[in-house]
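Field log, afternoon session.

UNIT: design team B
ACTIVITY: writing a sequence onto a fixed backbone
BACKBONE:
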């Protein structure tokens, strides 16, 4: 399984971390278009990736993560909204595993 590299955006287009509170922790998700598209994947349109970080409540995304994960490079995430939802789902799994 490869690693995920989120595309660098200009300051104007900088991707932002989105945050949800869950069971006293914060889930932070950042999505971005996939840099190295996997041409072997079925599907059409843009491929997206996510990174997710779990921090203490109120700590923010720049804080030391209690847990973290990245999207699966072998899966096709077709829109930013779908990718973000999957990131938060993964984040809830991580929180429940702490």
């Amino acid at each position: 399984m490869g690693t995920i590299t989120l595309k660098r955006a200009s300051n104007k287009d900088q991707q932002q971390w989105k945050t949800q509170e869950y069971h006293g922790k914060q889930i932070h998700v950042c999505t971005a278009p996939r840099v190295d598209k996997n041409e072997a994947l079925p599907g059409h349109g843009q491929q997206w990736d996510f990174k997710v970080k779990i921090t203490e409540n109120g700590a923010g995304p720049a804080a030391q993560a209690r847990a973290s994960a990245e999207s699966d490079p072998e899966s096709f995430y077709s829109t930013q909204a779908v990718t973000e939802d999957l990131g938060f789902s993964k984040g809830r799994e991580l929180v429940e595993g702490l």
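LOG NOTE: The two ends are 24 Å apart (CA to CA).
NEXT ACTIVITY: expression trials, pending approval
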